[in-house]
Design brief:
Layout lengths: L2 H18 L33 H9 L10 H8 L3 E2 L4 E3 L2 E10 L5 E10 L2 E5 L13 E8 L2 E8 L11 E12 L2 E13 L3
Antiparallel strand pairs: 1-3, 2-3, 3-4, 4-5, 6-7, 7-8, 8-9
Length: about 200
């Protein structure tokens, strides 16, 4: 094939790659204000925690009392990817939700954290497309396992006028766990934002 003939082929491949690459979700809670696009994929491993810095290691030692040890295969998959378990696991039937952090703030609240979902101890995805920080817009607050295949999660929503203690709104996301050829996968269904009860 001549160099001239190869140019259209290369251009087509480049356009195809650009068309299939998903844009990065907005940081913080911005993804909750956009149409929901699934960020999870079946059959992939638990994402790695960010590489620890000296400050992160110091925070972890200071906040060690709030870190729990792994008890299940799901817990071990999360800690094996470099995360530290930052709260109790939530289980309904064959589905388990595991919150974990890579860092902590000055009051030992989770920082750089994520919430992982497993079905039959197989990783199915995260509840957020981005890592979160306590007391910031988009931080995960609670999860409800309505059945082994359906769950909902609340995320704190701050305006510029809200004090750190008191976000004025909550966004609730509903999810379904689908079975794909390569394994289970968490798919977001819809999001509803409302005033937070006082």
């Amino acid at each position: 094939m001549s160099a001239r003939a190869r140019l259209p082929v290369a251009a087509a491949l480049l356009l195809s790659a650009c068309a299939t690459a998903a844009p990065a979700p907005p940081a913080g809670g911005g993804w909750l204000d956009q149409p929901l696009v699934s960020w999870n994929q079946a059959g992939v491993p638990v994402p790695r925690a960010p590489a620890p810095t000296a400050e992160m290691v110091g925070n972890r030692e200071r906040c060690r009392a709030g870190i729990r040890g792994p008890r299940t295969a799901s817990d071990q998959a999360v800690t094996g990817a470099g995360w530290w378990l930052s709260g109790p696991a939530h289980t309904a039937g064959e589905t388990t939700v595991v919150p974990a952090a890579a860092d902590w703030d000055g009051m030992c609240r989770p920082w750089t954290f994520q919430v992982f979902v497993f079905t039959r101890d197989r990783y199915a995805g995260t509840l957020s497309p981005v890592r979160m920080n306590a007391r910031t817009d988009g931080a995960w607050q609670a999860v409800r396992l309505e059945s082994p295949r359906h769950l909902a999660a609340d995320f704190l929503r701050y305006t510029d006028a809200d004090p750190l203690c008191c976000p004025s709104r909550l966004s609730e996301v509903e999810y379904r766990i689908d079975e794909a050829t390569r394994g289970p996968v968490v798919a977001p269904l819809n999001v509803r934002t409302r005033a937070r009860p006082r």
